[in-house]
Design a protein that fits this description.
The protein is mainly beta. It has 1 helix and 15 strands, in the order ββββαβββββββββββ.
């Protein structure tokens, strides 16, 4: 007769032999290891591994005047007059209804058909001077964004990519980000990236193709999430 295995669990039978003075033995309890037990052990192992690390936040932008802000919005590109940056204190437009948020207004008029803005360290650093930060251990960069009307598109958001005498160690990007009127969190995965030297902390690009009538967007809490050992 063929033995069948349960689809839900498998059994490891432990036969404990208790020898008596007569030389005979008594079989004891059979121990079962179910799928749920395996899942629990896996979760416990993953938690133990995670507990060895802690996540810290390194902000490109937190609030106006905040000491937590590390980069300066100073690298204008493309049709430089077509993009304007403001810091709104209107609590209706600020993320979480408090503090300030960044307001970017794009009005396509120039011949290039696109505009961009880099947050740099130090200000206006296109790789011509030493600067930037060592962001080793950064797992991702996150930011919150929304549109004034909904339907606005950020053509590209990226980090790094600065060249020159002191170039950035790597770059990563997220393209064609459609926005609604509600705050939404976005993320760029940085695992596997070389983050030892980043002068271009954050960059946004708009173009006329995606926003023929222009766009007004709000961005807040731009933050690198860095994992380090405890």
């Amino acid at each position: 007769m063929k033995k069948t295995k349960s689809k839900k669990s498998f059994f490891v039978t432990a036969l404990v032999l208790v020898f008596l003075s007569s030389g005979s033995y008594v079989p004891q309890v059979s121990l079962a290891v179910s799928d749920s037990d395996k899942a629990a052990k896996k979760a416990a192992a993953e938690k133990a591994a995670a507990d060895k690390y802690e996540i810290s936040h390194f902000f490109v932008y937190k609030n106006a005047g905040s000491v937590l802000t590390h980069y300066v919005p100073s690298g204008y590109m493309g049709d430089t007059r077509d993009i304007q940056l403001k810091q709104t204190r209107d609590i209706k437009e600020a993320y979480e209804g408090k503090g300030t948020s960044l307001e970017l207004v794009y009005t396509p008029k120039g011949q290039e058909g696109w505009s961009g803005l880099y947050w740099l360290e130090p200000a206006n650093n296109w790789g011509n001077v030493p600067g930037g930060f060592n962001l080793k251990g950064a797992e991702n960069i996150t930011f919150w964004a929304k549109g004034l009307k909904g339907g606005e598109v950020i053509t590209e958001v990226k980090i790094g990519g600065i060249t020159g005498k002191y170039p950035d160690s790597d770059t990563a990007s997220l393209k064609n980000i459609g926005l609604t009127k509600e705050w939404t969190k976005f993320e760029i995965d940085l695992r596997g990236k070389k983050m030892s030297h980043i002068s271009g902390g954050f960059c946004v690009i708009f173009d006329k193709y995606n926003n023929p009538e222009g766009a007004t967007v709000f961005i807040d809490d731009i933050s690198y999430e860095i994992k380090t050992k405890k």
